[in-house]
Amino acid sequence: MPRAGRIGWGIAALLPLVFLAVFFVWPVLALLATGFTDDGRADLAGIPEVFGEARTWRVIGQTLAQASLATVVALLLGIPAAFVLYRLEFRGRGLLRGLLTVPFVLPTVVVGAAFTALVGPGGPLQWTGLDRSMTVIVLALAFFNVTVVMRTVGGFWGNLDTRPEQAARTLGAGPVRAWCTVTLPALAPAIASAASLVFLFCATSFGVVLVLGGREFSNIETEIYRLTVQFLDLRSAAVLSLAQFAIVALALVVSSRLRRRREHAVARRAESVRPTRRHAPVVAIFAATVLVLHALPILTLLLRSFRGAGGGWTLGNYANLIFPPPESPIEGSVLGAAALSLRIALAATALAMLLGLLVALVASRRPRSRTLRRGIDLFDGLIMLPLGVSAVTLGFGLLLTMHRPLGIGFDLRSSVVLIPIAQAIVALPLVVRTILPVLRGIEPRLRDAAATLGASPLRVLATIDFAMIGRSAGLALGFAFAASLGEFGATAFLVRPGAQTLPVVVAELIGHPARGSYGTGLAAAVLLGVLTAGIMMLAERWRTDSAGEW
């Protein structure tokens, strides 16, 4: 490779690394250092002290239990959804795929508000006693992650060679036996990869557990938030952050290895089949998932947003979004918070797309040198680190370090600049995981042929790589914008009074005892949900079959 090309690829790899080093690694390490130092000296006494408390193990146990149970539920419901949406041929399949993608990007406070409206006081399922229970937390986590299973397993299933299963059927095996003995083992890499990702997302959930579980069902993420915000106990928070990082790092390693197995296992594109009577049980499970797990909480949220404090139907909650009542606990209007959220999300999306595109281009290369290949794999893993660190830890770490950082004569903590930076860090892995499979699917010989014919490296990128990622980039844009718009964990630390984002406003309104505050919070949650859902449905128009598999 010419020297100019090596310099260009070096800069493309260096920019994301420098960004993460300054705005992610430094803040997180600074918070950990604060928890493990005393008067400038190392003090590790907090480790045995924190792990000697019964509540620490209770929180860790609840985190593992919530994540494990939600993973099982998501798999049981997501695999039938993958079959229906990727193997059966019927009208409206593409629309249903897009609709089932929406739950994954809905803000956590919206989903928490929806399940609270469903099973909480005054809800239609209040009689079940599920409010503030482990069950409702698990169901809410599954609400998000059925989509992950559907897309990960379905994307693989749609490209799986069906001839071995057909051969088994020809030799006398029934449909169930053929699926269990042939198809299921072939799907194992994708199912295991989906399970590790779902476990990862559930183990780091913040908004859902905070809204639905409270202190009784805290996980590591919400416990870090409680320790830092309510008690300023940085030592205990730092120890829990290390425990969370160890759990999630293991999930990331497993997911990375299984993802590579999945990428190498695809044989050819399979043909879809028409639904028949024998598919009825699977279709029924899929229909029940969509109607009960997804539609029912959202419809309940929508209906209850039109109920007044006295129980009658009203549009007052939506009027309060524009003209807040005197007793409103927030400064300014909800509509103003929505406008601010959109502006911040636009900036975060632009930043995440720029960095994500650079990362995907670098990580998709497969040089002949084994050392370079290992370096690229390490680079890819480093970019995924934000998935393994608490957003709460990131937000608090930014507050600790961004007072005139690197000699800049400006306190970044006093402005909204840090919010899009934090949101871009959260969205970056989604952008990379959406674009990277498309780039890795490009035949390397195409690039070699173009270079042999005299095309410069930039022209190869323009005519081959950029041409292939066009539609997947649109989907990545949607994911980044929706994730930024709904980000809550880090943003909750960085917002200022009078300049709050919409998710923070929703959480404050729902939890405030003022008359009419809860109904206004539900209306604000509907507004936030409509914005994110609209963004994702628009982005789905640019979806490619190989894009968006996490």
UniProtKB/TrEMBL annotation:
It holds the Pfam family BPD_transp_1. It is found in: Cell inner membrane; Cell membrane. CDD domains: TM_PBP2. The keyword Cell membrane applies. The chain crosses the membrane at residues 7-29, 64-86, 98-120, 132-153, 187-214, 234-258, 279-303, 334-361, 382-403, 415-436, 475-496, 516-539. One of its GO terms (cellular component) is plasma membrane. InterPro entries: MetI-like, MetI-like_sf. Keywords: Cell inner membrane, Cell membrane, Membrane, Transmembrane, Transmembrane helix, Transport. The keyword Transferase does not apply. PROSITE patterns: ABC_TM1 (PS50928). It is a multi-pass membrane protein. One of its GO terms (biological process) is transmembrane transport. Belongs to the binding-protein-dependent transport system permease family. PANTHER family: INNER MEMBRANE ABC TRANSPORTER PERMEASE PROTEIN YDCV. This is Iron ABC transporter permease. It comes from Leucobacter chromiisoli.
